[in-house]
């Protein structure tokens, strides 16, 4: 029933959009009609420009997200297990967490140029803290009673971590990864809008420079659709893994 309601809402929005365009309530230059957007989509799909732009952006996202994950999860585990160590670096982490990656773009371009490396760095910066902080939280909130039970059964520190601490932290780690991939997607689009010669962000910027609002809308819709698809696939894969923990990451 909820899915049907969601479809109705989308259809109503498209209907109002089309009706407003037909009645010329707004300027078609500012808000292009659905017909123009559809025709532009078909044109971009036909010449391969849209697929190529999306593929380039997705490749950047997954590379940056992978690097961020292999850095953030181990660090989150280490600092979660060593509270005294985390307390030493806490203010530094809080400072860096509140600096938007886009604020670092001028310096990143200065250090790494406008090539692929700078875009990957922006993605890593954007997705690192959601993954790191959720991993940290998952490790820290493990019920101490379970740890004490493990000690009663003479489990080693590694066994306690493997059988008690890590399994209890997995849902939070997965949540962090889910947030991280969303942040990665938003970050790469912003980075491509600022400094790039390819990707979906560049497609939007190029359309803006030649006053093609229809292509801009195609780009925006593509971003939203692929964001939803990426998150849906991630949720399904993570749910398969989490079944043994009897935890589910719900689609929102």
The ordered H/E elements are HHHHHHHHHH
Question: Structural class, judged by helices and strands?
Answer: mainly alpha
* Overall morphology: elongated
Helix content range? over 70%
Average pLDDT, rounded to a whole number, is 84
The CATH H-level superfamily of the largest domain is MetI-like
What's the number of structural domains? 2
CATH architecture designation of the largest domain: Orthogonal Bundle
**Using DSSP, what is the number of strands?**
0
CATH domain topology of the largest domain: MetI-like fold
Q: In CATH's first tier, which class of the largest domain applies? A: Mainly Alpha
How many helical elements?
Answer: 10
Largest sheet: none
* Rg estimate, integer Å: 22 Å
Which runs of at least 5 residues are low in confidence (pLDDT < 50)?
248-252
- Percent of sequence in beta strands: under 5%
- Distance from N terminus to C terminus (CA atoms, Å) equals 15 Å
Protein name: ABC transporter permease
Membrane topology: Multi-pass membrane protein
Keywords: Cell membrane, Membrane, Transmembrane, Transmembrane helix, Transport
Subcellular location: Cell membrane
